[in-house]
Amino acid sequence: TQSTWGLISFVFAFRLFLWQRVLYGFANTMKPSARWVDFLRRHGMFKLTFYRVHFLYFIIGSLVGSGLLCAIEDIAWVDAYFLATSCMTQTGLSTVNFSDLNTASQVLCWFLIIIGSYTLLLLLPLLVRLYRYRKAYQEREQNQILRAGSRTFFEQSRHQELYADVVEYEAVVLLIKIVIGYFLVFQILPWGMFWIYTSNYGPAEDILDRYGVSAFWFSSFHAVAAFNNSGLTLFRDNLVPWAADRFVLLLSCVSIVAGQSLLPVFLRLIIQMLRYLATNRSPYDYLLQHGRNVTTHLFPARESLVLALIWLFIQVVEFICFIGFDWHRLGDISTGQKLLDGFFQAVSTRTAGFNIVDFGLLSQTMLLLYLLFMYISSYPLVITVRQTAVVEEERSVASQNTSKYFQRTLRTLLFRDIFLLYLSWFAITAAEQTRLDKDDNFDLFNILFEIISGYGTVGLTVGYPGTPTSFAARWSRFSQLVLCVVMLFGRHRGLPHSIDTAVNAIPRTERHKMELVRRHLSQSRITSRQNGGEEEGVRRAMSDQGFQTEVQPPIPRSNTDVFLRL
To answer: What is the arithmetic mean of pLDDT over 9-21?
Structure first.
């Protein structure tokens, strides 16, 4: 029964959680003569990289969520796993009528959306870095022995290195506070605004009464779904009932772009505004100049501007094409509502997956355009993350030719994406061959549309006539599981590995810079006979490596204890 499937899901999730640790311990206890174990170890199969931990987190969350859904609802395990995976990956596709689920199941899906949030998961590398900074500082204080007496060269260089570490550590603490505040404000504030509006505005109250949804629950669920670009709603026809409501649609647009598409831009703007109110601006300056060292979604000014312009360009193209191709297909509604619907669909289509028009009424040309934009939905952000990555010294040398690196990254992404999409398309088409031969509503384009929507974690669907679910609900169980795998890989598209300092415990780039400074100081000490000459060497070396050119005074003990206090 469903309870049995739920128990199986929990057991399998727990065993999967132990998989990496068990294999790692097994590999360490095996004799060196076990060549296959040694081969796997050399190729990093037992290494817990950021990518693998992130992927494992989503697999376990989906399995546990599916088990709980089976325990609550009388639905098949595959449907429960599909819905849990869709919520965790922020996709929004569903093989069951989500509006018919009881409140407990909807609350569980609401929670799965939150724990799979893009913004929330930015905190994980930052918190690990915070812990490792404390540990590294304690070890350094224990192992380094400074000579007493005069201010030696070694002590001076140590103060410079310690100052740089303290600034970066304070920047990490500051960024954690900003991300937590950002995550809470951009969901709690829209929730309050939705609740007040739907509780006091007559037409909004009529819509909720017609569908039997309370204003509090609609506001709570939709504020989270919009910010996290989930695409799920409490209504059987998505947001079509709100197609004429300007307040709900425009506030949803703000939440959508703040949650994913323009997240790096919004973070940078917030840091810049807070900087003007702060007395100690060093952490803010470090985040604005070297923010990519500590997180994957804080870009330099130029890259942030380019990302915003690309987003604006895509929205304009979508809006113009929507108005041009489907203006006459929107029915007998006002011109203002048509413009509003076109704007909302342009904002929502690439990432969120909400729809306020019936996709069965849209032209094939518009559906093909949506297919393209869903496919490239994450490319601007992914390429910017890859291009601005601060990794090993080899990457720093390679990044001098930005155009070549951009081309190589784009070719790699395209090859990997096309291969995965074609393989899944072929597998699903083979499994659905009988339906393709007998059912006119089954065709290759509709299957490809659903696959790309899942891979882009968008959630748009062409649907099936007479059903309020995604088109995938009519597929076989095998095809639905294949689409779950596609959603998981799509959610991790472009996710950096451990070579990126933003997901490393301690940045190696700054250590490399300090090593260059120490080498320069050594040369200056040999060639210089006076203090002035040595200090000039310090300033020149620090300036060459991007640090402050003024020689910093010895740091008081209260400042160096920032690692231990926090």
So the answer is: 47
Q: Of 458, 456, 249, 483, which is closest to residue 357 (Cα–Cα)?
A: 249
Angle value at C-alpha 376, between 373 and 382, nearest 5 degrees = 145
Q: Are 362 and 323 in contact (CB under 8 A)?
A: no
Q: At what angle do helices 153-200 and 508-527 cross, to 10 degrees?
A: 150
CA–CA distance, 183 with 199 (Å, rounded to integer):
25
Closest CA to 75 of 59, 92, 95: 95
Tokens 């022995």: give the residue: 145
Measured over the CA atoms of residue 102, residue 106, residue 107 and residue 109, the dihedral's sign is positive
Quick one: how far is CA 558 from the chain centroid?
37
Nearest Cα neighbor of 62 from 119, 16, 100 is 16
C-beta separation of 349 from 373 below 8 A: yes
Among candidates 215, 221, 214, which has minimal Cα distance to 238?
221
Residue 268 neighbours by CB under 8 Å, 6+ apart: 288, 291, 298, 299, 301, 304
Per the CB < 8 A criterion, the answer to whether 57 and 115 are in contact is: no
If one counts every other C-beta atom within 10 angstroms of the C-beta of residue 208, the result is 19
Distance CA 473, CA 467 (A): 9
Give 524-543 pLDDT, tens digit per residue.
544 544 444 444 544 554 45
Distance CA 560, CA 547 (A): 18
User: Could you tell me the pTM of the whole model?
Assistant: 0.78
